[in-house]
Amino acid sequence: SDTFLHNHIDEYNLTDSPDLTALIPIVGDKNSFIEIFYESGRKRHMRQRVPLFEKEVILFNSELKHRLIIDKHHKNLIFLCLKMQLV
What is the pTM (predicted TM-score) of this model? Predict the structure, then answer.
């Protein structure tokens, strides 16, 4: 199953929105992915799928839209999502 396509930017509060997102699968599955969508720059209209390996940090710009694609046969996935601002 999929999660909805989203980013971590609050359009009504850009100043306090995060700059970077770190997704860390605590219990992962190599057959599940995070799919990242690029909307501008050289990679415009491209997608990238990154497998969700346990304890492997996936770091990306919080402005990028993304979704999780989860293998329906895998029942126990646990994620830690950290949202960070550069100071």
Answer: 0.84
